[in-house]
Write a structure and sequence with these properties.
400 residues, six-stranded mixed beta sheet, 18 helices, 44% helix, 16% strand
């Protein structure tokens, strides 16, 4: 089994909070991580709330919680039983010992809205991303540089959803991802109360794939969708953000007296799902595809976003920066103590433009990096360096 970087963080949060809400897309590995933790915890109880039998055990939830007050109770797919949050609140208030509840949910926005009303100050929130390259590197130990890069390319192509990553063939991986997306659109979203026709959302999702890594253009999508309003397009985008399929990265605003880009960028949280929507089935198709550069950018951005909660500050922000004058930085991480810039290039001999150096000056960055598919790092200047993907954890100060 692949060890997850987030195991230690989850245990730390359970050590000081009565409950932890572990968020993540379906099939990202939440249940596996929770079951592993439960197996290491004496007398832990695991309930899947999509199972009628397990749901029946919570018909009298207050009595069930009282009977298991000295155990870790793991509740999987809690968004299926939103009324449970109201019943959890008095039980946590009655006994605020740490490590009592672990709640797993697959719908970020909906789950946060439901739980915030009842569990504010009572639980800690944590997100589990798809598999990261840092977590898979143990399997590439002892390989030469070429094999190492081929393994990285496989993760990039297939994405980090475990069943896709570990599929025996590219064809099986692609089939799984297509089935997964259809299931999200036609089963999971309606189950969350989304009444928009599945065919409409499926069409929108495929069009959105072509804006991955780019400034979100609601007006262009509105026209392509048949003349719907840009407000409706924004609502569709929020649906997939809530389902943890897509993320928005907002621009970094500083008082420079310059014209700044003000619209967000959009990224699919898993490059494998992006490639399924773009019809990219293998590494050859990926290398020659016009979206390959944007796709690589998404892989790196998703790694940065996933690692930020594990940094020393734990509350660093992720934005991008672009001015009308041409200054640009793909990712700006603000830890509160310093600003770090990341430019992302799909090249084994990356070159930066004048806009990169301008952004370093404009933002007063303490250091900047160019993240590329290379096997080792080298300096560009005293405060700038080219690094491979696996060094992101090091430069962000994350222990692996």
């Amino acid at each position: 089994m692949i060890g997850r970087l987030f195991s230690r963080e989850l245990q730390d949060r359970l050590a000081y909070s009565p409950g932890v809400v572990l968020l993540g897309a379906r099939q990202v590995g939440k249940s596996t991580l929770a079951r592993t933790l439960a197996a290491q915890t004496p007398e832990a109880v695991f309930l899947d709330l999509e199972s009628p039998e397990d749901r029946a055990k919570l018909d009298r939830a207050s009595a069930f919680f009282a009977a298991h007050r000295n155990r870790l109770v793991v509740l999987d797919e809690v968004q299926a039983l939103p009324e449970l949050f109201v019943q959890l609140r008095p039980d946590i208030d009655a006994d605020r010992r740490p490590g009592r509840f672990l709640l797993l949910g697959s719908a970020n926005g909906a789950l946060l809205r439901q739980s915030a009303e009842s569990l504010a100050g009572r639980v800690s929130y944590m997100e589990l991303p798809p598999l990261l390259w840092t977590e898979l590197q143990a399997d590439t130990a002892g390989q030469d540089a070429t094999q190492h890069l081929l393994a990285l390319q496989s993760l990039w192509q297939r994405g980090g959803m475990p069943l896709s990553t570990l599929a025996k063939t590219d064809a099986q991986s692609l089939r799984w991802r297509n089935d997964y997306l259809q299931s999200v659109v036609r089963r999971d979203l309606p189950a969350l109360g989304i009444t928009i026709p599945g065919e409409t959302l499926w069409r929108f999702l495929r069009m959105l794939a072509h804006q991955h890594g780019q400034i979100f253009n609601a007006s262009a999508l509105a026209v392509a969708m048949g003349g719907i309003s840009h407000i409706t397009v924004g609502r569709y985008l929020d649906i997939f953000c809530d389902a943890l399929i897509v993320r928005k990265v907002e621009p970094y605003f500083v008082n420079l007296g310059k014209r700044l880009v003000k619209s967000p960028k959009v990224y699919f949280r898993d490059t494998g799902l992006l490639h399924a929507l773009l019809g990219i089935g293998n590494a050859h198709d990926l290398q020659g595809h016009p979206m390959s550069g944007y796709s690589w950018e998404g892989l790196v951005m998703n790694h940065i976003a996933a690692l930020l909660p594990l940094t020393a500050s734990g509350n660093a922000t992720l934005n991008f920066f672009r001015t009308a004058a041409g200054a640009e930085m793909d990712a700006v991480v603000d830890t509160g103590a310093e600003r770090i810039g990341f430019e992302i290039k799909l090249s084994n001999a990356p070159r930066v433009t004048k806009g990169f150096w301008s952004a370093i000056t404009d933002l007063k960055l303490s250091r900047a990096y160019v993240v590329a598919p290379v096997s080792s790092s080298w300096p560009l200047a005293d405060n700038a360096q080219v690094i491979p993907l696996h060094e992101l954890a090091r430069v962000l100060g994350v222990q692996t």
